Amino acid sequence: MHNDFSPFRIVEGNRASGLVLLCDHARNALPQEYGTLGLPKSEFERHIAYDIGAEALTLGLAERLGVPAVLSGFSRLLIDPNRGEDDPTMVMRLSDGTVVPGNHPISDAEIAKRRDLYYSPYHKAVEGMIDEALASGNNPMIFSIHSFTPYWKGVHRKWHAAMLWDADRRLSDFMVEGLSRDPEMIIGSNEPYDGALKNDTMYRHATSRGLAHSLLEVRQDLIGDDAGVQEWIDRLVPLLEEANHRHDMHEIKHFGSRTDGTAIMGNTP
What we know:
Layout: E1 8-11, E2 19-23, H1 54-65, E3 69-72, E4 94-95, E5 98-99, H2 108-135, E6 141-148, E7 151-152, E8 155-156, E9 161-164, H3 170-179, E10 187-189, H4 201-205, E11 213-219, H5 226-244
Parallel strand pairs: 2-3, 2-6, 6-11, 9-10
Antiparallel strand pairs: 1-3, 4-5, 7-8, 9-11
Helix pairs in contact: 1-5, 3-5
């Protein structure tokens, strides 16, 4: 592995705080050996390479709340950490109309190399952070931060933000209700995406452990600059603090998953 490239970044914080932040698509960086995967550099400023604004929002929340965070250090075009290891879209050959020359064609050996050098170390860092939080005696909520494009296939997306969930709705429902207190906000629940993605980051590190969790999607034009990021930090901090004071958010509960046919348990609607 290159000495100047890390597959993840750890932000220090209180492991006993009851909250761990994650950011799967924080960076648009590639290890030197991959160049630009045959793409113009301009493509790395688009959402196909990373989640615009998500890194800054994650760092700001971690600082304000004093909680730990784990962020990816590589572009999703190299390999997508928010995919299961058996997902064919783990390495994208075509992304939003753009063919990625460095990924097409690609051998199984090259996919395995990227998995071993970048994908797996990121997930080991996430797992280690959650293990440390659990060892503190205060079961953590897991809050993952993403962003989505204002338009998709020419259609404007009306939502300002969304909370994604699979079967455990504890934290997602709380955040949707809280964000919706602002009458100007249109907040989606599993819109414009569904949170039931088989073996994704949330399943791997939260659902399978019975930890309360949610995946936040903020529309990218709302966090594309420092002012927008700060506005969302101010909006999210009190809600996350409020959620963190609720006992049920720190109970281990196994609700199953809508992706694997597991029976849904627990008492959350």
